[in-house]
Specification:
Blueprint (H helix, E strand, L loop, with lengths): L4 E2 L1 H7 L13 E2 L2 E2 L7 H22 L8 E7 L13 E6 L2 E6 L5 H7 L9 E3 L5 H4 L2 H8 L8 E6 L8 H9 L23 E6 L4 H4 L9 E5 L3 E7 L8 E7 L2 E5 L9 H6 L4 E5 L9 H5 L3 H10 L5 E4 L9 H9 L6 E3 L5 E2 L2
Parallel strand pairs: 6-7, 7-8, 8-9, 13-14, 14-15, 15-16
Antiparallel strand pairs: 1-17, 2-3, 4-5, 4-17, 5-6, 10-11, 11-12, 12-13
Helix pairs in contact: 10-11
The chain binds zinc ion (ZN) (2 copies).
């Protein structure tokens, strides 16, 4: 099976290298500029071209954009909450026709990866939050502040779960950050204040599971909500079990491709499998090893459950993210547990990897 990851390591190999032996010629010694070096015109010309080439290297290295396929998923953050996993926390970007249109979560470190991907907030159609744990939302202020320097004028909707006694709703959360009177970042209040002139407005909205009444004309057990659609894409969500927290799994349909973001979930219930049915990519969270129990298991799904959902939903490609120290280094064991159920292409994500459905 053809694997479709444009991985960070492969991109690094594509970055042009300095010609062999370039240093030491034209009056340089091996330590750089030697004392008493005769700086010839040829050397000057070469150093200028090397300087320009250097700029090219920098821009190539910084803009780690995906390839040219019409729909791509880029992993901005492949890590969990621990900084020692040396990865940005959860965040994903969906590129459609070469532009970043959907941002799913924005954990710590992901704002930097957003910049490195070459994306701009101006291109985003929507931000989708799976839940409000810090490692899924902490860089939202950094993203919003950065967008101050862009030219966006159209509103930016942010959809996420409704609240409960353990978590605020998405609307309350965004207001707690940016409300112009009481927000922690009230100095950015113009992004929420409808009376403020200039710039664009954030539009936070809560996604609530369907009430029993609304479900009457649906398939039994179907809890899918369709909060956002435009001419390019449709976003749908189901509630998923993640301890006591309100949490959502998201599906993006665009260009004939279905992309699933499980978010954090222990995998209990049938909703995620139904949402994912026939999807091209399932991004699932590899946050616990097989056999772990207790709080870990209440919050996350083991590899065997990931494999079973991927198999039952007939997923075409599985991407494992939200990698933590307790799962890093156990990839062979994880893969073996998945393979007991699911035989399709399966890859472990790293920051800035791109996956083509
Ligand atoms: Zn998480
Ligand atoms: Zn979580």
């Amino acid at each position: 099976m053809h694997l479709t990851c444009i991985c960070a390591a492969e991109r690094a190999r594509m970055i042009p290298r300095a010609p062999a032996g370039s240093r030491g010629e034209g009056g340089w010694n091996k330590d750089g500029f030697g004392s008493g070096t005769r700086f010839t015109t040829a050397a000057l010309s070469w150093s200028l071209s090397l300087g320009l080439l250097g700029l090219a290297w920098i821009s190539t290295a910084l803009a780690q954009t995906c390839g040219t396929a019409p729909v791509q998923v880029q992993v901005l953050g492949s890590g969990g909450p621990e900084l020692q996993d040396r990865r940005a926390s959860s965040s994903y970007l969906v590129w459609i026709e070469g532009r970043p249109r959907v941002l799913v979560d924005i954990g710590g470190g992901a704002a930097l990866r957003f910049g490195e991907s070459g994306a701009t907030v101006s291109d985003l159609d929507v931000i989708l939050l799976t839940h409000l744990h810090a490692n899924h939302t902490a860089d939202l202020p950094a993203l919003v502040k950065s967008s101050f320097f862009e030219e966006r004028t159209r509103p930016l909707p942010i959809y996420g779960p409704a609240g409960n006694k353990f978590m605020p709703s998405t609307v309350t959360f965004v207001r707690a950050l940016f409300d112009s009177v009481r927000g922690a970042y009230r100095y950015l209040g113009d992004f929420l204040n409808p009376l403020a002139r200039g710039g664009y407005k954030l539009q936070p909205q809560d996604v609530r599971p369907l009430s029993g009444k609304l479900k009457a004309d649906r398939q039994p057990g179907d809890e899918t909500v369709y909060p956002f659609a435009n001419e390019r894409l449709r976003a749908s969500a189901v509630p998923v079990a993640h301890g006591n927290l309100p949490a959502l799994a998201w599906r993006i349909d665009a260009g004939g491709k279905g992309l699933i973001f499980s978010g954090d979930t222990n995998g209990r219930g049938e909703q995620l499998g139904r949402l994912a049915l026939g999807a091209d990519i399932l991004v699932a969270h590899n946050a616990m090893p097989e056999g772990a129990s207790g709080v870990e298991r209440e919050l996350h799904m083991p590899p065997s459950i990931i494999g079973r959902i991927a198999q039952q939903a007939q997923i075409k490609q599985l991407v494992l993210s939200h990698r933590m120290r307790r799962t890093l280094g156990k990839e062979a064991e994880t893969l073996a547990a998945i393979r007991r159920h699911y035989a399709g292409p399966t890859q472990f994500a790293n920051d800035l990897d791109c996956f083509t459905p």
